[in-house]
Amino acid sequence: MHTLPQLITDLALILFTAASTALLFRFLKLPMILGYLLAGMVVGPAFDLFPTVKDSEAIKVWGELGIIFLLFSLGLEFNFKKLTSVGGPALLAAMIQILGMFGIGFAFGTALEWNITTSLFLGAILCISSTSIIIKSFEEQNLKSKSFANMVFGILIVEDIVAVLLIVLLTTLAISQEVSGFALGLETLKLSFFLILWFVTGLFLIPQLLKSIRHFLTDELALITSMAFCLGMVVIASKAGFSAALGAFIMGSLIGETEQQHRIEKLLNPIKDLFAAIFFVSVGMLVEPQVFVEQPSVIIGLSLAVIVGKIFFASAGGMLVGQSPRAALETGISLSQIGEFSFIFAGIAIAGKVAGEELYAISVGVCLVTSFTTPFLLKKRDVIIKFLSFLVPEKFIAQVQQYSETSRLISASPEWRQVVFSHFQKIMINAVISIAIFLLVSKFLYPFLTDELQNRRLAQILSLGTAILVASPFLWALVFAKPSDPAVGEILKTKMSIHLRRTLLGFRFILALGILTSLLSQLVGLKFVLGISLILFTVLFYFLYRYLEPVYTWFESRFLSQLDGTAKKQKSLPLMVPWDAHKTELSVPAESVMTGKNLFDLKIKEKYGIIIAGIERGHRFISPPTRDEILMPGDLLHLIGSDQQMESFEKDLFQLHQETSAHLSDEMSLEPLLLTESSSLIGVQVKSSLIREKFEGLLIGIERQGHRILNPPLDLQFAPGDLLWIVGNRKKIKNPEEP
After folding, report:
1. Is 159 a residue whose pLDDT tops 80?
2. Stretch(es) of the chain classified as CATH 3.30.70.1450
């Protein structure tokens, strides 16, 4: 008797269990990823009551394939155009959230008395949100067209890029098992070279190659070719010393730049879903349930840290880049979970024997808790925001709102962006020059004077005096310098309240004080540093500002103007605070009541107040569309409007024709109809018979006196005894009232 390989038996067990748990979680309207994790725990070695996977090593290999196809699919969705469309606000907000959560994870690991390497891994595990859980929650609650959704998706793109880079760095860390700045720096240089190669290849070789063979690419060949490219890049990345996941992501992003992107993405989806399910099941197999019993406080504490920390840092980042307090909080609530990348990071730690399997179990536990809470928090976000508004002073909320409007003003006006960039560029240059002066004095002048004078205290005083004297104009400018363009000063004076101007001045003062304090510590004992810094800013700069300002202005005109390179601005700039509107994209369903109608008849702008900026149809982009443009199934509409307008329009757009459900429920079949002497069709030509309207079908053929006529000509007349074969509504064809 033939014996099946153990792998096939194990796969049958895994897929049957995964399907059962996923159906259960689908019924409960919970993320299916949780069902896969539960399936892994059931078929894993921890449960003896159920059949257990025997060849776990082979399943790990399949799980590795799951990671490869998951990252390849992620790369297909990511491309250079999407990266450039993210913009500075999403980038800054994402980095604030990532760094903040990384710090919380590292601090939590240190508090648990874990070593530095394990704590770094914990920081990485907590800092990346789950794209799949967020997208599913948005779809179920119809949030994809909300204004804050654009910021969430932008942050997710940045997080995906950071996660791929973390995979590389954490793999290096797991191999060396020590925190070495030189090793990580060398690895970063290698990665930079690899990414440059990726950029060059992506723009020139891969798209051109696929374009040249596109006429030969059937669906089968397109899938095989893309898989060959994917695994080939995986091998190249591994040979270069990087992870397989990085190679898969790179090749996915390369193909994402080609015309075949959507086609390959559609072909890959079933394979990705299958192997991703096996990957998450393999993750669940590594979980030790006893950890949930032994360390519930750790899991609950980390879950609370993720929820509260991500809401805080993502909201703070959102408000910093100009989101309204409400939109920023909605962004933070959306990102308050961890997901698939956390398992990858934990797997790297275990494979490198940096941490025990408890780290895996803790990661799964935190993912389970935060995945359950995310849909609930999104649903109750109005209650949460209302509750938080009672805790925060109204004055603070008003200042944040004003800052948000000013930031939106800046982002809406190219002139504003250029002016503000030039302004902050000046601050950064002054900070760099001040740091450079103190470093040069401490590294070169101070040792030289110490050797020459043989008096350490005197050398210290002279070095400190020299550094302060030379750096004073730049430290002064860091805090007090006004924009050189009068128009900019007028804008800031008229559009910013005095409280906001004082806040910005305080921020610049704290920045300069921190820089000066850290620099003075190179020359003076720590107990004297803060006092000297305060004296310099409150006394020296206050009395000498009239002498320092001309010195700085002279230097700026001779040197900084070369770096600034900013053309003269007009004396007045047209300003307009943008409306509460945002851009979003919606796809037209095939059965929509709006499909097939032109924009003039739909009157979308008049009814909903929404502007259609463009229509994306295949490889065409129609912008701006004319009033005669007809909405086609699958059109991607680029819309501009408020949340309320979008919600009203989306409701009507996704309203389907009522007869659609009736057609789907009726039985469509090939049925015969015998014409008798009394039939109304006798003597009528095919083209005048109205068979399509009467039977909701098509005339396929006629049997007449033993002869069969396929697709009868339109001028053929029906005769008694004709047997008509019609594809249509069975009930109407068999209607006894029809003669």
Report:
1. yes
2. 582-660, 667-733
